[in-house]
Design brief:
Strand order of the largest sheet of chain A: 1-4-3-2-6-7
Number of domains of chain A: 2
Distance between the termini of chain A: 53 Å
Structural class of chain A: alpha/beta
Shape of chain A: globular
Number of helices of chain A: 11
CATH architecture of the largest domain in chain A: 3-Layer(aba) Sandwich
Largest sheet of chain A: 6 strands, parallel
Largest interface: A-B, 27 and 27 residues
CATH superfamily of the largest domain in chain A: HUPs
Oligomer: homodimer
Radius of gyration of chain A: 19 Å
Number of strands of chain A: 10
Strand content of chain A: 15-25%
Helix content of chain A: 25-40%
Order of helices and strands of chain A: EHEHEHHEHEHHEHEHHHEEE
CATH class of the largest domain in chain A: Alpha Beta
Amino acid sequence: MSMRVVDSIPAIRALVSEARKTGSTIGLVPTMGALHAGHRRLVEVARGECGFVVVTIFVNPTQFNQASDFEKYPRTLEADLAVCAEAGADVIFAPSAHEMYPGPQYTTVEVSTLGEHLCGKFRPGHFRGVATVVSKLLNIAQADRAYFGEKDAQQLAIIQRMVADLDMAVRIVPVPTVREADGLAMSSRNVRLSAEERAAAPAVYRALQMVAVELTAGRTNVEEAKQAALAMLAAVRPQPKVEYLDIVDMVTLAPLAHVDREALIAIAVWMGDVRLIDNLRYAAARA
Amino acid sequence: MSMRVVDSIPAIRALVSEARKTGSTIGLVPTMGALHAGHRRLVEVARGECGFVVVTIFVNPTQFNQASDFEKYPRTLEADLAVCAEAGADVIFAPSAHEMYPGPQYTTVEVSTLGEHLCGKFRPGHFRGVATVVSKLLNIAQADRAYFGEKDAQQLAIIQRMVADLDMAVRIVPVPTVREADGLAMSSRNVRLSAEERAAAPAVYRALQMVAVELTAGRTNVEEAKQAALAMLAAVRPQPKVEYLDIVDMVTLAPLAHVDREALIAIAVWMGDVRLIDNLRYAAARA
């Protein structure tokens, strides 16, 4: 059966309900489109685990802090559909903003603590928008499993916490970050980098690796562990403007001063007017 | 099959899943126990519409503003089970607080605007607690229909809005308020009234009826429409302390100054240390 594309909530519900009747496990891959190899991996993993794979393509206005970022967000529906078809999606749900928000949206889902650190400090309301729209998509698709990339580590942690706290009947499946050959994490925003910025961008992942090396070498004080990476980034041209480089608790995402356990090293930088994020999980070698 | 009583989330999920496999519609009646004829009606209506009826009994700590009100809330499990069995429930889910909140609950569901008026003004955080726990219960029971009494009109409006805004796959069924012969709305808190307070309590409903009479007579200015009812309440002994007597929009629950459409007349009073609420829907005779 060839891939279907629907834009209404009743239509996607009907298709999912039909698939469920045949006993299929329902897999959901929520995206904002502008699909790249990272998304493709999400769909492939879902395809391998589920009988029926739904990909949603919806650029959610409530999670953007600036109208300009929302407007500039790349929209490439034709190419996206090709990626989804190749990766084996059964149906694409690509609703309009009006379909998702037909009237005033009074209800919000908020995950405290986890949403306050890292990107949350710089993007007020962003994760409330994310948690709310993901709740809606999970409820619409009635998914058994939903797939999220580890590149958006804070988003993943927040969604996992939300699902646990609200007893949602879905399993969240994390999928490892897909990178370019030079280490740059795949992102829909990468296409907005100039040639020079693109050439410099792998420094973002290198910085994370340098912090991990310091930690592994026993430099467990966070400020000390960050120094070499920050010095490296300061020497890169065009220079990435570091928004944060933090080492945080895996569960609460609160910054650590001293790394004595598994932790997440996370970074956000601006390259010109493009914001890039990346992260690396660090497993402490010694207690 | 006789009624089952379970206290764990996996146990209730297994029973619901089994019932669903036989094609049964799942009905949920969320309660805090201390069941009276109003709850019994909820269960009976659910029984008439659903193949499998789940009643939850859980005194939710996060929706109480005062520890004393939480502690004083009547707990009558044995009698509750008898009511449920007679009314035809299939299973009772009566979890502990630890089962529902095993760790810190970081996630909350909030319905803005609707939660800010009426009781929301006097019970900060109450409806956030209600919306969050009802989300959890709906997700745990995977209900097709859930039954709520019109007596808690603001709670009902908030839950209906939450379900619509979050695209939850459940239908909320409102059930009319059940009253004592003298008009007092059934409430678990009524048993805490002294004999004198109980004798005076029907004045609460009478006040609502008096407002409706004034509105019907064409006195559409809210302050004027309330005057006779407030004067009547002021003369009652022991005297009910009026927390609010408002006439509000059916959808947003925002107070109206002039009643030119369908509206909700709602009241909260204190009789001693017992808080009573009630409401009456008013359908404007003329546009």
